[in-house]
Structure prediction request, 263 residues.
Amino acid sequence: MSARTSALAALRGQIERIETSEAAHHRDRVALGHPEADQALQGGLARAAIHEVFCEGRQGTAATGFVTGLAGRVTARRPLLWVRQDFSEIETGALSMSGLAELGLDPRRVVMVRAVDVESALRTSADALACDALGAVVLELWGETRQFDLVASRKLTLAAQASGVTGLLLRMAANPLPSTAETRWMLRAAHSPPGSAWSAWGAPCFDAELVRNRHGPVGRWIMEWKCDECQFSEPSSYPQPVAAAPAHRSHQAGAFAHQRKAG
Prediction:
């Protein structure tokens, strides 16, 4: 057997042990607040694990909001390290600290790191995941990248398991590849419910599809983020009818309004 074959066999064995580890199944979990999602997750999102969130490029804002919510749930008031490529900032712009605060995440607990390339981002994230003083590490990567392979994923998973720190991978404009992640989500923006009379905006809503779950079923839900409570929930129901936005009205409705005005 060649050295390459032996190395691959050893790697497969280590990955299998990660996947079947009882410790992974029984590790600490934090409820997200959405009943159906928490049920699928066997009680909530697992700490000391890696979770992937994918989205199309144009859905980056929604995915960032969703990851912010996850981070707020798992950090337990400990610091959060957010690692971004320089290229991510060029594509999506800088993160807004006031925006994070509006979502319920204290900006004073957020440490931002800008990496010059993918290799630097991966090294920084692996080192940070080994630091048990942190509550979570967010690694944000833009586009397809060959550097983030199964070996890199395994390193992050082992570091998270050893320290108890949760890793959240935000992947924009990228296709999922084999990894050792505990869960994988596909994120899209969902229509927000109407805001209150004194609020211009409704609560953030996400079309969250759980496409990979190592220890339970998958599913797809509309998850509303409660900024004040800092948790997800089922979408709010409103007893009063809400008028459709102009973009969703039929041409007959517009013609009828024009006739009434003319009359």
About this structure: The two ends are 89 Å apart (CA to CA). The CA atoms of residues 193 and 199 lie 12 Å apart. The chain is about 35% helix and 25% strand.
